[in-house]
């Protein structure tokens, strides 16, 4: 826990008292918490903390009407609202804003409809990604977006960040699976956007505008998603390389063979080391970089065969047909974030670069880590060119730490600049949240940012929806 | 040609003269046409005409600076601008608005970049869809969205309507392939939205908001697209059925087998009859409905085998492995619009319904055609639930025609209402344009429409960008 901690006493001031009275008027006791422990645990997500605030209260909505009541109460008193799913975001999009209430949607967790013939589902925002997938799997279907947090993150949170995951290169990101949204607007009204059909182009694409808006334009209370088919077959190839450079070249080689894997994950030596430490495995002995490729569908075996051939030709030691071990490695990769929670001393990034720049970018990252004397590990959703470098420093004492922190931040800033110079983006799938705001201006020029501020102002003129985030 | 034709004399009035002087000041002679024949031929696209206007002038932009100059000139004089690609739209999105100029982007037709390693291309808006595909094919790549007009329609026009096509169910619509846009805004400024990477979630998704906005929010002058892999193998299955109902059931059967075809087209008897007349084929003798299924990729053969099995089990007469004939049928289907251009006596619709309602909806359509004594044929991108029913009447004499036209419009209106009642949309891929505005209020309630008007007003406060369209 770090950053500037501010204490708000719940209910302090006459205005807050009147507000809390109104807020609680249509909620049960179990839906409202004012105690400091709860407020504290709901004050942050898993992102680094820049500016910590305690919310005035935590509210658990159980219905659309609850959300409307909360929004109307907040609108009447000018109280900011930070909507929150499972709090698994890593950019601070769900960090409490100053003087806000935190509105948890985790109890709105019903799958309202799942229609296997239409291949669609309608869910409340608090439904866990993995639970929707389990329900869909009974019909041979899946909800494709699979952020690494899929076992605990909510669809509403996925929508807020336009979450990605491992199999985006083939199956798309959250936006590509969302057909329609029910949204409580800043004035408490309920809006329905989109369509129940796979295709629909009537009017502007408000649904796509809302996906990824991190709770700043409205509060998503219902999501209609398209489901896809559970793959007929899955084959997994693990390719160990003597260095990261040749592993990244393997990514391009698979592309050149015109095979579209479902998953293509690239792990550097730092990540292998961490996995070995966490799991007692001996991955580092087998190579200094690992490329995991999963093909699926009716052509999975044939595709895996091509993948094996081109990767072996590029110098990889490739696992054989029995891909059970490779599948275990994918599971290890899925959980490679492990128990670590980012803070200001350990920051995971989310840069995406054009695929051809993967090799150059990682070489630059390694040079930076060495120059600034900070730790570095990199995993990448390589099929998308989406990298998650983590820079860190070990804490020693106050004076040493201050200097190291300056170096860490210099490395972070430089990595962003270099990524942008290569045609990249500061965030491929995590969102800007609170933490990445400092870099947004490097990517988007003022007119683009101003247009977004004006859209925000149109949706939320009083600025009560998750202020200080996303744009 | 029909509708209310209004004559604007080019250059009439002192204001128009001054405007045209300014407009022409930075354009070559070959970039500006004021003659009536040209103005007339650029005054409409292929959509039905509700309200026909002649533009003041037709301008061909050859550069971004040209577009900026045109927009600034129009902004200064409050002259509406209708941007236009190849004019192949079928909703009247490129019909001239009253007192407008038509800005053709067909000469901005360069592929500026095509990067096979990044699997992206940057194109000017006037590039023909098929030309981009031909360039991509040299590298084993394709631009996935394939509207039936792909041989003549432009990428800019595809972006304006968020065009679909035959292979959307597997490969997505235009929005899913567009990564970034260069857009000239209503004040003449140039804005760059989006990212060069496959994934990117920094800020609001302005790119998705602009895709499908039919030239009402800005004028697209550059498009960065993601390319996909040309399929390793393609297999095509043609299945003839005794009636449409069992053919539509075949669509669901393929879904239940969890096979995702690239193409799944459904043709009714009226369409088979038309194809026979156009091509001298004898399709009607083989069945009263045809389902065409194309599988692609490494698993294409195995998938086609499953498709054949489930369709045969559903009562279809299915073509054998040699799918050459079936491929020819897909080509026939692609050109099934033929030479016919819609007008008020022959209207093609673009309704999409949830897939499970395909059968019911077509049964309703047939009942309507019979009740209102109008012609009907139906083709459907069945994988998407996207139907293109065409209702028509034969013209006899003025009095008879007036009565028939009333019946035709009653059938059209009823088909829309029934489609919406089934959870459908008035337009799956063609756009609202000018023609479908009369139905938009049936699909979208006033608050949703008002929000779009406010977004329009934010982007284009003077209302000069394609007024009277889309929203």
Automatic annotation (TrEMBL), chains A, B:
Identification of the protein by name: FAD-binding protein
GO molecular function, one term: oxidoreductase activity
Residues spanning the signal sequence: none
Gene3D superfamilies: 3.30.465.10, 3.30.70.2740, Vanillyl-alcohol Oxidase, Chain A, domain 4
Residue ranges of domain FAD-binding PCMH-type in the record: 51-230
Classification via Pfam families: FAD-oxidase_C, FAD_binding_4
PANTHER family: GLYCOLATE OXIDASE SUBUNIT GLCD
Keyword Calcium: no
Keyword Endoplasmic reticulum set for record: no
Cofactor(s) required, per the database record: FAD
InterPro entries in the record: FAD-bd_oxidored_4_C, FAD-bd_PCMH, FAD-bd_PCMH-like_sf, FAD-bd_PCMH_sub2, FAD-linked_Oxase-like_C, FAD-linked_OxidoTrans_Type4, Oxid_FAD_bind_N, Vanillyl_alc_oxidase_C-sub2
Keywords, comma-separated and alphabetical: FAD, Flavoprotein, Oxidoreductase
């Amino acid at each position: 826990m770090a950053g500037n901690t501010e204490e708000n006493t719940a209910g302090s001031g006459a205005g807050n008292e009147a507000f809390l009275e109104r807020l609680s008027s249509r909620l049960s006791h179990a839906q409202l918490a004012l105690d400091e422990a709860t407020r504290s645990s709901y004050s942050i997500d898993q992102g680094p903390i820049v500016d910590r605030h305690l919310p005035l209260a935590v509210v658990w909505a159980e219905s659309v009407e609850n959300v409307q009541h909360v929004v109307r109460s907040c609108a009447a008193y000018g109280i900011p609202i930070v909507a929150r799913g499972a709090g698994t975001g890593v950019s601070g999009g769900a960090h409490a804003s100053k003087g806000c209430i935190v509105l948890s949607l985790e109890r709105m967790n019903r799958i309202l409809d799942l229609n296997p013939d239409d291949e669609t589902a309608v869910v409340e925002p608090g439904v866990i990604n993995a639970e929707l997938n389990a329900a869909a799997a009974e019909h041979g279907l899946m909800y494709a977006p699979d952020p690494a947090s899929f076992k605990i993150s909510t669809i509403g949170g996925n929508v807020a960040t336009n979450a990605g995951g491992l199999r985006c290169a083939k199956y798309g990101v959250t936006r590509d699976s969302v057909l329609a949204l029910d949204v409580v607007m800043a004035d408490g009204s309920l809006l329905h956007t989109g369509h129940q059909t796979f295709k629909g182009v009537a009017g502007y694409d408000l649904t796509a505008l809302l996906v990824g808006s991190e709770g700043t334009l409205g509060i998503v209370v219902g999501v209609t998603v398209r489901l896809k088919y559970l793959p007929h077959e899955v084959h997994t190839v693990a390719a160990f390389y003597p260095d990261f450079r040749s592993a990244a070249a393997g990514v391009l080689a698979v592309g050149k063979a015109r095979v579209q894997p479902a998953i293509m994950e690239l792990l550097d030596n730092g990540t292998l080391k961490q996995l070995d430490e966490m799991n007692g495995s001996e991955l580092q002995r087998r190579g200094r970089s690992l490329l995991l490729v999963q093909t699926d569908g009716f052509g999975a075996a044939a595709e895996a065969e091509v993948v094996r051939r081109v990767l072996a030709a590029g110098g990889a030691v490739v696992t054989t047909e029995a891909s059970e071990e490779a599948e275990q490695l994918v599971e290890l990769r899925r959980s490679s974030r492990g128990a670590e929670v980012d803070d200001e001393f350990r920051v995971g990034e989310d840069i995406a670069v054009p695929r051809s720049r993967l090799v150059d970018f990682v070489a630059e990252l390694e040079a930076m880590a060495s120059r600034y004397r900070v730790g570095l590990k990199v995993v990448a959703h390589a099929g998308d060119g989406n990298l998650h470098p983590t820079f860190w420093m070990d804490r020693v004492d106050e004076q040493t730490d201050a200097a190291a922190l300056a170096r860490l931040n210099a490395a972070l800033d430089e990595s962003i600049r270099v990524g942008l110079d290569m045609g990249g983006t500061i965030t491929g799938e995590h969102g800007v949240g609170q933490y990445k705001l400092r870099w947004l201006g490097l990517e988007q020029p003022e007119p683009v940012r101003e247009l977004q501020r004006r859209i925000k102002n149109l949706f939320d003129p009083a600025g009560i929806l998750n202020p200080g985030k996303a744009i």
